[in-house]
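Anyone up for a design puzzle?
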């Protein structure tokens, strides 16, 4: 028997380990290291940088909601809406949701979405992109209600809608140059919309809320009240504006002109009742519109006024006592040499009184009046009437024109100024001059806003001489005058034609500006109207042919819309003295 082996097994069984295995030690140390690191990290985050955890939590649960503030309206003087904001929706996509659910989207719905957005399916995919970390991309801003309703029915995951507002202009191109327009973000870009953007734009009310994991609102943390937008009421009368634009557009097309402007001013307070330009544009749909059409020509474009400025040298002579209403000026029967250069009239008129000079638009007559004055007195009349100065409208882009100072004035330079050359004005500036004459010599700054308080005026011409000039301007429209087509049935009106060559790089070109500036009604002047027709083509380019008919139509309509009674038989204003055969 092999019994001696038993004690060896018993010894092995009773043997106890005295050293921990190195593997076991490694596991223990690793566990302690991991748990120690977690404890240290937790302590660091909880004690040293708790703000980061709060920020991460807030990013997931906090949201800021805003109640959109609609842009203020622009109204005409009678409260008619010229610019309003209408609610619309924009279509946007969450690229993350779209990409994750792209395989679930029926291709027919995807193609239908692309069709409604007027792009190809591939362009739609490119617009959303392949980056699933992006959460927002616009697909279409300010979509039509029909488009929004159709896309909602497609129920494509990741396609959502956002409430916005869109600017709408009921009068369209009629008021486009004055009002301007806004961009897709409802910010003013041109005209009144741009200049008074801060006034028209309100501040939305903000509310900070906390949402749960399912997107439900569970707590309102803070709330900030918004600021309502403000409406703006202009001095424009939409009815007169529409007539002015219609007649101007018709004349520009009829005479093949490059452009034109009409300005109507209330002479009692300087408020602009109409300001129109042609060609215009549709502010509701500016697609493919040349940016050159955005320019408000009535305030930005300057020109040499020609004969429309002739009332100023006549008034200067009356104001300084170098001429009276009975003064007779010899204009001769041919050109005269002034300062080494010829000054001529269309015809030879012989002797003319002041009324005859105005009626026949004699260049020689106003030249002799200008040269009979001290130079500073002659030019002072132009400055007092606002030549070279802004009108007070305050519209961005107004160019006041230029009357350059010279150390020594030659006779011919003064002569050319007297009949409307060698300096420039704009349409609103010319309208202010005639409004001052019509208002008895009191000048008001022009205003584009309706005011219930009469502005402070400045007397620049005596009432007597201003009234005499009003009567002289009536003679221009009457028999023997140069502006018979400016007559208004039932009303006494007056004004002055202008036909000026346009200056080019190499001197005066063959292009003309035909103009007419006038007032109505003569018995009690209420409005001043200026019509500018730029570069008429063909055989008709004189102001009496192209601009005077526009004045007639606009003035006639404006007087009726303002409920001004006809005064054709009114003789309250005494006719000015005249000389036999003066015109």
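Challenge accepted. My sequence:
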């Amino acid at each position: 028997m092999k019994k001696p082996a038993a004690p060896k097994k018993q010894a092995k069984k009773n043997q106890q380990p005295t050293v921990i295995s190195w593997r076991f030690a490694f596991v223990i140390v690793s566990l302690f290291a991991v748990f120690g690191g977690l404890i240290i990290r937790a302590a660091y985050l909880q004690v040293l940088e708790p703000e980061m955890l709060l920020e991460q939590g807030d990013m997931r649960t906090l949201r800021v909601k805003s109640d959109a503030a609609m842009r203020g309206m622009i109204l005409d003087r009678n409260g008619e809406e010229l610019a309003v904001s209408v609610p619309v929706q924009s279509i946007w996509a969450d690229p993350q949701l779209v990409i994750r659910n792209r395989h679930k989207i029926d291709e027919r719905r995807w193609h239908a979405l692309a069709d409604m957005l007027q792009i190809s399916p591939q362009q739609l995919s490119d617009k959303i992109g392949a980056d699933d970390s992006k959460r927002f991309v616009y697909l279409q801003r300010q979509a039509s209600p029909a488009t929004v309703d159709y896309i909602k029915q497609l129920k494509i995951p990741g396609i959502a809608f956002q409430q916005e507002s869109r600017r709408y202009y009921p009068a369209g191109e009629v008021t486009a140059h004055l009002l301007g327009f806004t961009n897709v973000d409802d910010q003013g870009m041109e005209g009144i919309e741009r200049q008074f953007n801060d006034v028209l734009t309100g501040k939305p009310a903000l509310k900070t809320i906390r949402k749960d994991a399912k997107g439900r609102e569970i707590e309102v943390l803070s709330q900030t009240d918004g600021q309502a937008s403000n409406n703006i009421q202009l001095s424009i009368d939409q009815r007169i504006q529409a007539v002015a634009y219609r007649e101007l557009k018709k004349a520009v097309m009829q005479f093949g002109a490059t452009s034109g402007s009409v300005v109507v001013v209330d002479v009692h307070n300087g408020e602009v009742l109409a300001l129109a330009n042609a060609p215009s544009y549709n502010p509701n749909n500016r697609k493919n519109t040349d940016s050159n059409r955005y320019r408000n020509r009535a305030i930005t474009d300057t020109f040499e006024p020609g004969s429309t400025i002739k009332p100023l040298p006549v008034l200067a002579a009356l104001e300084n006592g170098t001429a009276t209403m009975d003064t007779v000026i010899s204009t001769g029967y041919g050109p005269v040499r002034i300062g080494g250069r010829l000054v001529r009239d269309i015809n030879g008129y012989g002797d003319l009184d002041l009324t005859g000079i105005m009626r026949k638009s004699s260049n020689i007559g106003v030249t002799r009046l200008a040269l009979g004055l001290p130079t500073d007195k002659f030019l002072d009349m132009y400055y007092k009437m606002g030549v070279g100065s802004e009108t007070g409208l305050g519209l961005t882009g107004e160019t006041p024109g230029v009357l350059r100072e010279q150390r020594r004035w030659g006779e011919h330079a003064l002569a050319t100024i007297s009949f409307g050359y060698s300096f420039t004005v704009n349409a609103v500036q010319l309208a202010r001059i005639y409004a001052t004459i019509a208002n008895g010599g009191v000048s008001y700054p022009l205003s584009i806003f309706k005011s219930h308080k009469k502005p402070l005026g400045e007397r620049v011409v005596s009432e007597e001489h201003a009234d005499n000039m009003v009567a002289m301007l009536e003679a221009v429209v009457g028999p023997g005058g140069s502006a018979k087509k400016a007559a208004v049935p039932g009303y006494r009106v007056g004004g002055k034609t202008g036909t000026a060559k346009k200056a080019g790089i190499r001197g005066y070109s063959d292009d003309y500006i035909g103009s007419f500036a006038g007032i109505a009604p003569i018995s009690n002047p209420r409005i001043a109207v200026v019509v500018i027709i730029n570069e008429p083509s063909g055989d008709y380019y004189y102001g009496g042919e192209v601009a005077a008919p526009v004045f007639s139509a606009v003035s006639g309509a404006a007087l009726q819309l303002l409920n001004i009674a006809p005064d054709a038989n009114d003789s309250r204003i005494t006719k000015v003295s005249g000389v036999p055969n003066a015109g």
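A detail worth pointing out: Residues 114 and 122 are 9 Å apart (CA to CA).
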